[in-house]
Amino acid sequence: MPTRPYVIDEMISAKAIAARIEDLCREIQGEFKDTDKLVVVGLLRGSFVFIADLVRELDLPIEVDFLEASSYGDGMESTREVRILKDLRGAIEGRDVLVVEDIVDTGHTLNHVTHLLDSRLPARLKSIALLDKPSRREVDFKADWTGFEIPDEFVVGYGIDFAQRNRNLPFIGKVRFTQD
Length: 180
Ligand code: IMP
Description:
Elements: E1 6-12, H1 14-31, E2 38-44, H2 48-57, E3 62-69, E4 84-86, E5 96-104, H3 108-118, E6 124-132, E7 145-149, E8 155-156, E9 172-177
The structure holds inosinic acid (IMP).
């Protein structure tokens, strides 16, 4: 549980997210238009709302799978050491794969996960993140598609949590503490 009281200021509206997803899906469809075997991999838990909206907008034959990597726990700082807590159910060798992440922050998580999946010899491996905080990067990683670049703020909503809370907000908001 968060220990200090906070409020949430809206940063990206539900409408703006939906419009951006439409644009992103047009680009993704262009990239994968020749595929009959795209596996869309959601990174749990933060991407569950994003992947749900993304796949419903994608006019492509797809399968959905999930992978869970260790995350922030209950804090606001990355642990940097990435562990796989839940692996994919299916094999991806020879398949086209799109990894879906909520936020690229230090970059450790997606960097680790894409290297891991690449070692399984997919035909094509691409990644998409709804949000990117480039100013926080510690490893040289850039997703193939990004929804929005944001400043160094701690955000919640649209699947993203603060100590497991606020995932169910329909928009992206930033956390503002109301006491020191
Ligand atoms: P990275 O490994 O530092 O790039 O961190 C990626 C993960 O950290 C994301 O998938 C989120 O789970 C978490 N994260 C990064 N920034 C935030 C934030 O502002 N709010 C909530 N979780 C975040």
